[in-house]
Design goal:
single chain; about 400 residues; conserved putative lor/sdh protein from methanococcus maripaludis s2 fold; Elongation Factor Tu (Ef-tu), domain 3; 6-stranded antiparallel β-barrel; elongated
């Protein structure tokens, strides 16, 4: 009887050990996060911070040396062309010697030549605007007959807006040149006995708002000293300084998404110019970087971005490549398999490695050009525990 009891205990111990070994070596099912491969749009962008600026800024300077009276205008105040924005009282009139008079006369001649040049630029810009409007009219007729695409129409409308901005810029430049002529003539004006008490009005060359007040209190200023900065806030552009390795991928006319500017929507813009010369900038980590300024123009109506002003921060996403319908996968599902990329698919409750060929990619998604089809289920963020044939189960969503 005692022997039988000992045998039963032995067999019970063996069964317990066998059960523990079976549990230890029993294949486990790993919970994983999955996603389904599908088709959709893909944007490849260069992202960088930018700042807004008024395209045409004009510095209103003192035409002659003297005492400028207190300037009552404040930043944001509206001014019109030929408005008096400051008053200056010459301190003591002095006669110009022969050399100074010759220099002043040369300055006046140069200013008058600049007026002619800027007027010619204005006429050229108006001719380009008229041509762009004629081409837009022809293209609208082609679109109505389904002989042209809406994308071509959008590009032509953007050309018309750009041409209109060039006309405005040329007009501002012509007015500024005329103001330079006025200043040069004032310097050559003969002195009179009562000139010490008279007040010389300083006028604005353009219509716009006061962007900056350089001088506020009454003070003595030399000739040419800046007093105010005036510009039109409706002529706003964005300056983005990109790394030179990114700037070479950007083309004029590229679409831009403007985000993080404080509004509740994304603004549309276009690349107007990539400057041909770069500059060195020290990063926050103390590394020298070669940067290039890229100039963007808004394509949205002015009402959409009227809350923006001069020197505001924005986030610009410059599109370097885009497609409306591509097979794509989140980059979090990609793993390296030797010299190529791969994903882990889920089939019959097991993980299977599949090599894929990638095309364009951004930081979140990648285009798949081969190796897997739409509708396949892949594992997101596969860790070291995921291998060929491992049992997996989708993790329940919270």
């Amino acid at each position: 009887m005692l022997r039988l009891l000992k045998n039963r205990r032995l067999w019970f111990a063996v069964a317990v050990v066998a059960g523990l070994v079976a549990v230890a070596f029993w294949p486990t099912t790993l919970p994983v996060e999955t996603t389904v491969i599908g088709r959709g749009p893909l944007l490849v962008t260069v992202n960088e911070e930018g700042r807004t600026r008024v395209r045409d800024r004009f510095v209103v300077a003192a035409p002659v040396a003297g005492r400028v009276l207190r300037i009552e205008l404040e930043p944001g105040d509206a001014v019109h062309a030929r408005d008096v924005v400051a008053k200056l009282r010459p301190e003591s009139p002095t006669l110009l010697d022969a050399r100074s008079r010759a220099e002043a006369q040369a300055t006046l001649d140069s200013a008058r030549a600049a007026v002619g040049r800027t007027r010619a630029d204005e006429q050229r810009a108006k001719a380009m605007l008229a041509q762009a409007e004629r081409e837009l009219t022809r293209l609208r007729n082609l679109v109505a007959e389904s002989l042209a695409t809406a994308q071509q129409l959008d590009a032509r409308e953007a050309d018309v807006r750009t041409a209109q901005e060039q006309v405005n810029s040329a007009s501002f430049a012509a007015r500024s040149a005329e103001a330079d002529v006025t200043r040069a003539q004032a310097r050559l004006a003969p002195a009179s006995p009562d000139s010490g008490g008279r007040v010389i009005p300083v006028i604005s060359p353009v219509e716009g708002v006061v962007l900056k007040r350089v001088r506020e209190s009454e003070s003595v200023v030399p000739a040419g000293d800046p007093l105010l900065e005036v510009g039109d806030p409706r002529q706003l552009e964005i300056v983005v300084d990109l790394l030179s390795v990114d700037a070479v991928r950007v083309q004029p006319g590229a679409r831009v998404l403007v985000e993080q500017w404080g509004g509740d929507r994304t603004l549309d813009a276009r690349v107007r110019r990539v400057e041909p010369s770069g500059f060195t900038k020290i990063s926050a980590l103390g590394v020298e970087e070669q940067r290039v300024n890229v100039i963007l123009s808004f394509t949205d109506p002015a009402d959409a971005w009227k809350a923006l002003g001069d020197g505001y921060r924005v986030e610009a996403r410059i599109v370097t490549w885009e497609a409306a319908d591509v097979l794509k996968v989140p980059t979090g599902a990609l793993v390296r398999a030797g010299q190529q990329w791969a994903v882990y698919t889920v089939q019959d409750g097991r993980a299977h490695e599949a090599a894929v060929t990638l095309g364009h990619q951004n930081g979140q998604e990648a285009e798949i050009t081969g190796g897997i089809d739409a509708g396949a289920t892949v594992i997101m963020h596969p860790g070291d525990t995921i291998a060929e044939g491992v049992r997996v189960a989708p993790r329940p969503t919270p």
